[in-house]
Amino acid sequence: MELFQCCYLFGFLMLFSYIQLTSCYQDGFLSLSCGASTSFIDGSNISWIPDGAFVNSGQTTTIDLDGTSTNVPIRFFPDSQTRKCYNLPTNNLSSPSLVLVRAQFAYKNYDGLSKPPTFFVSLGTALSTNVNLSKKDPWIEEFIWPVNKDVVSLCFQSIQGSGYPVVSSIELRPMPQGSYRSAMNDSPDYLLRSVYRINCGYIDGPLRYPIDQYDRIWDADEDFTPFHVSTGFDIQNIFNLSNLIESPPTAILQTARVLARWNELTYNLPLDHQGDYHIILYFAGILPVSSSFDVMINGNIFQANYTIQTWESKDMLFTLKEINSLNITLRKVGYFPFINALEVYEILDIPPGTSSTTVSALQIIQSSVALDLGWQDDPCLPMPWDHIGCEGNFVTSLDLSGIQLRSINPTFGDLLDLKTLDLHNTSLAGEIQNLGSLQHLERLNLSFNQLTSFGSELESLTNLKILDLRNNSLEGIVPDSLGELQELKLLNLENNKLQGPLPRSLYRKSLEVRTSGNMCLSFSTTLCNQFPSTIETPQVTVVPPKKGKGLNHLEIIVGSVGFIVLALFGISIAFILYSRKKKSGMASKAGTKTDASTQNAVKAFSYKEIRSATNNFKEVIGCGSFGSMYKGKLQDGKQVAVKILFDKCQLSADTFLNEMSLLSQIRHQNLVSLEGFCHSPKQQILVYEYLPGGSLADNLYGSNCKKVKLSWVRRLKIAVDTAKGLDYLHHRCDPRIIHQSVKSSNILLDDEMNAKLADFGLRKQEVKPDATLVTTFAKSSSGYLDPEYHSTRQLTEKSDIYSFGVVLLELICGREPLSHAGSPDSFNLVLWAKPYLQAGGFEVVDESINGTFDEESMRRAALIASRSVERDAMIRPSISEVLAELKKAYSIQISYLASTEFTST
Ligand SMILES: *[C@@H]1O[C@H](CO)[C@@H](O)[C@H](O)[C@H]1NC(C)=O
Ligand SMILES: *[C@@H]1O[C@H](CO)[C@@H](O)[C@H](O)[C@H]1NC(C)=O
Ligand SMILES: *[C@@H]1O[C@H](CO)[C@@H](O)[C@H](O)[C@H]1NC(C)=O
Ligand SMILES: *[C@@H]1O[C@H](CO)[C@@H](O)[C@H](O)[C@H]1NC(C)=O
Ligand SMILES: *[C@@H]1O[C@H](CO)[C@@H](O)[C@H](O)[C@H]1NC(C)=O
Ligand SMILES: *[C@@H]1O[C@H](CO)[C@@H](O)[C@H](O)[C@H]1NC(C)=O
Ligand SMILES: *[C@@H]1O[C@H](CO)[C@@H](O)[C@H](O)[C@H]1NC(C)=O
Ligand SMILES: *[C@@H]1O[C@H](CO)[C@@H](O)[C@H](O)[C@H]1NC(C)=O
Questions:
Q1: What integer pLDDT is reported at residue 826 of this predicted model?
Q2: For a substitution probing ligand 3, which of 118, 120, 164 has the most ligand atoms within 8 Å of its CB?
Q3: Which residue spans traverse the membrane (predicted)?
Q4: Residue to mutate (ligand 6; options 263, 333, 335; most atoms within 8 A of CB)
C-alpha cells in the first residue's frame, strides 16, 4: 500500500515506499487529548481519550493549533507555582520495559496576552528541561523512560514570572524490546530525551505511525544543514533488518542522504546545553556498490574507513560525554558516503526517589489537613514540594505553620530524616506526642499553639538544638528529663502557664532558656515555691557567655522581674545573677559567694547598725507587699530610707548580693541611689538615700498638708530631671535598663525640689545589642501601661516613653491617669486629654497654673507629651528627643517669667 507520494529532489530522487501496515497496531498506546471532553479516533486510526482521569488540576480551553480554524483542546494550569502532574500508567503497555512519553505544548495565544510561557517539564524524579514557547509553538518533548513503576508522573512547574504551563497532548508508546538499552547502561537510572530523529534524504514532512509501528516521529531531512548536497535513494525492502535492535521502519531506511559530488557529507546539529548524548547512525546498503568513508564527529575521526556493503544494514551507536554541539561528517574514502537515518538523545539521570515510607507518611498528612497542599509525585525530586525541604531524596524539613492540624499525627514519627519541623500556629492541643522517633531532629518549632503538656517523648530527641514552645498553654513544672537533651542550645518557654523551679539539669552555659510570660519560673527554688500561682511574673533568662569579652566571670545572667512587686504594689525588685564559674565548668550552681564588704560604693550594714539607724524601726514611711519602708539616720547623720523585704520576697544569698553589686553601680543625680544593704540569715534590707520632698504624686494629689503648689516652671523642672534619669537608664547604662514602672509615685523630690526616679532595677535590663533580648514583664500600675504590651507582652524603652508621657500629661492637667471624678469619657487621661492638646487646645490644662505659663512653652510640652503616648510605639520619640523638647519648653518658660517679672517659684 502506498502511503506517500514519490518526490523528486534535485532531479535525482527515486522514492518508493514499501510499507507493510501491521493493521492498526495500537497495543498499549495511550493517547491523551488534554482538555478534551470526548474520545475520538484520528486519521491514523489512533484513538484519543480525554485527560481528565490522569490529572487533577488545571483548566481547559481550545486553540487554533495549525491555523486551520479547527479548535483543538488544551489544558492550562493558571495561578499556581506548585508542580502539576499527570500520573501516567505504564503497566498496561504491551512492552513493559521501555516507554516513549511524548507531550505537545501549544500556547497560540489562548489567553490573548501574547505572552508565551516558559516552564519546567519533568518526568519522574528527573528534571528534564524547560519548555520555552516563545522559541517554538507548538513544542514537542519526547522521552524514553525505563519502566520501573506502574505509574510515571509527567509534571510541569511554572517559573516565577514566566507564565503558566499549557499542554495539548500526551502520548505513551511502548518501545521495541531491548532497544536503546545500551544508551542507558542497561540501568533504570537513566532516561533519554529526544533531541533529533532524522529520516535522512526524505523531504516530505515527518513520518510516524502507522509507518513506524512504535509511533516515533521521524523528521524530514530538509530542516537540517547543510542540505544542499543531499540526495535521496530508495530501494525495495530486501534488507535483513533484524540486527537493528531499535527497529527503525523499513520506510525510513529506504531513503538516504548521499554524497554524490562533494567529499564530505555533514550534519550540523546544535544542542541546547552541555551534557551526555547518545547517538545512533543507521546505514543500509542501498547503493549498487559498497561504500567506505570516515565517520567524523566534531571534526575528529571517530571511525576510519567505515564500510557498508550493498544490501547490508548497520547501525553505529555511541555516547559522547560533556558535549555542547554536534557535527557529524562522513568523509569519502571509496565511493559515495551516505546515511539513512540518525537519532540523537540526551542522557538524563533518574535520581532515586524518596523512600516510600516518607512518601506515604506525607500523603497521610496531606489527607488529614483540610487544605490541598498540592503534593503530588516525589516530595523532593526534581524539586521539593511546597512546605518541604530536602537534602537529595531525604525530606529534612517540614513547615506546616498556619495550617490547622490540631494534633501531632503518629505519621509525623515516620518522617525519620527530618532535621527541622515547624508546626507553629497549627492549633495543636494536648500533649506533645509522636515525635520520639525523629532522631535527626535539630529544630522543633511548636510555638503559638494550645499545647498543654510536654508529653514524654521530647527527651528522646537527642539531636535537638532548638526547641520553641513559646505561646502555648503548657502547665505545671518543666520536666527534668529535658536536661537529657545535651545538644540543646535554645529552649523557649515564653508565655506559657509554667511555674516552679526550672530543673537544675537545664542550667548550663551552652543553653539559653527563655521563660518570660509564665506564672513563676526560675532557677531559684525559694522564690517559686513560695509564690502563689496567681501571681504573674517571669523571666529568667540565661544568656550564654560571650567569647572574648573581658567579662569572663559573667557567664550567666538571671534577670528576674519583680515578682515581689507584682503583687499590687508596682514596686519591684529584680535581680541579676552572676555565675562566676570558670569557662570550663558547667555552671550548675548559681554562682559563688561574693564578699559583701568589698561591694563597690555601697556599704554592707550589720543588722544591729540598721536597727539603731532606724531607731528600732520606729518611723514607717511606706508599706507594700514587698516589705516595709522605714526612715532612718546613719551614724554620719545622713537620712536614709530602709526597705526590709518580707520573708517571702527574699532572694537567695547569691542573688541578693549580686543584685546589690549591680544596683550600686548605677549613680546619677536624677536616680535614687542605693546607699547600702544588710544581709543576714533572716533579713534582707536595702538602704536608699532619703528624699524628704515626697513623691510627685503626693505633691500633685496628696493631702493638703503634704502638697506644695507646683508652678508650671517647677513642673517642667521635674519633667526635665526625670527625663535625664530615664535617659541615663536607656542610653548610658550597660546593659541598658528599661525602668518598667515610670509613674508619678516613683518620682521623688529632694528638699530642693530636684526630682529623682526611684524603683529601677536590673529586672529591667536589656542586654547588649548582640546578646539575646531579655524580655521582661512587670505589672505597671494601671493607666501607665504601654497599650502595645497587650499584644507584644514585652516592655521596651518605648513603653517607658509611654509611661513618662502619662506623667507629663499629669503635670499638664494636674489629674491622675485614671479618674472617676469627671464624666465617663474623661476617665482615661490619655484618651481624654490627647485630642485637646494635639489640637493646641489648653482647656484641659490644670486650672491652678492657668494664666501663668507661656503658650509656646506649654505647646511644646503638650506636643511632646501627646507624641509620647502614641499607641504605635514606633512613632513615639526617644527619651533624648523628649528631654530636648522639655529643656526648650523649660527655658522658654524661664525667659517668659523673666520678661514678665512674674515670680511664682
Ligand atoms: C482505520 O481502521 C479501519 C478499520 O479499523 C480501516 O478500515 C481504515 O482503513 C484505517 N485507516 C487508516 C488510515 O489506517
Ligand atoms: C489496559 O488495556 C486494556 C486492553 O488492552 C484496556 O481494556 C484497559 O482499559 C487498559 N487500562 C488502562 C488503565 O489503560
Ligand atoms: C524564552 O525564549 C525567549 C526568546 O528566545 C527569550 O527571550 C526568553 O528569555 C526565554 N525565556 C526564558 C524564561 O528562558
Ligand atoms: C538476518 O540476520 C540475522 C543475523 O544478523 C540472522 O540470524 C537471520 O537469520 C537473518 N534473517 C534472514 C531472513 O536472513
Ligand atoms: C560544527 O560546524 C559548524 C559549521 O560548519 C562550525 O561552525 C562549528 O564550529 C562546528 N562545531 C564543531 C564542534 O566542530
Ligand atoms: C577500506 O576498507 C576496505 C575494506 O575493509 C579496504 O578494501 C580498503 O583498502 C580500505 N581503504 C583504506 C584507504 O584503508
Ligand atoms: C496563624 O495562622 C493564621 C492563618 O491560619 C494567620 O492568620 C495568623 O497570622 C497566624 N498567626 C501567627 C502568630 O503566625
Ligand atoms: C518559631 O516560629 C515563630 C513564629 O513564626 C518564630 O517567630 C520563631 O522564630 C520560630 N522559632 C525558631 C526557633 O525558629
A1: 80
A2: 118
A3: 556-578
A4: 333
